[in-house]
From TrEMBL:
It holds the Pfam family AstE_AspA_hybrid. Signal peptide: none annotated. Residues 44-125 form the AstE/AspA barrel-sandwich hybrid domain. This is ACY2 Aspartoacylase. One of its GO terms (cellular component) is cytosol. It comes from the Eukaryota. Gene3D superfamilies: Zn peptidases. One of its GO terms (molecular function) is hydrolase activity, acting on carbon-nitrogen (but not peptide) bonds, in linear amides.
């Protein structure tokens, strides 16, 4: 499957549909070239690996007591460092990120994840390396 977004539930956006079409086309082009025997050289790519899902701060009754800080909103895949604003309480108190490494949040404040108690997902940026790839000769 291919998930391209962000996109609100029940909304069809032309720009997101165009991105989805492009990535599916690239995938199909790769399969065709691979099946034709093309050799692909070794490569390295940066990817984001999920570390953990982070919930909103809650009171003892399980009610949300803070919202995503405005400086974090719409900053998916951007670095979040120790001390950066993370949440904002209804009283105006800033709750900073407290971590020992830079992370890359995603799915920030997505409506579809409220019921799953997920404010965002912390990811780490890693590099994956692939050796050359070619269809074995039979």
């Amino acid at each position: 499957g291919v998930e391209v977004g962000p996109q609100p539930q029940g909304v069809a956006r032309a720009d997101v549909l165009d991105k989805m079409r492009k990535i599916v086309k690239h995938g199909l082009d790769f399969v065709q070239l691979f099946n034709e025997g093309k050799e692909f050289p070794p490569c390295t790519i940066e990817v984001f690996k999920i570390m953990e899902k982070v919930d909103y701060p809650r009171n003892k009754n399980g009610e949300i007591i803070a919202i995503i800080h405005p400086k974090l909103q719409d900053q998916d895949w951007q670095p979040l460092k120790n001390g950066d604003p993370l949440f904002l309480t209804l009283d105006g108190e800033v709750i900073p990120y407290q971590g020992n490494c830079t992370v890359y949040p995603t799915f920030i404040n997505e409506a579809a994840y409220y019921e799953k108690k997920q404010a965002f997902v912390k990811t780490e940026k890693i590099k994956l390396t692939a050796t050359h790839l070619r269809l074995p000769v039979s």
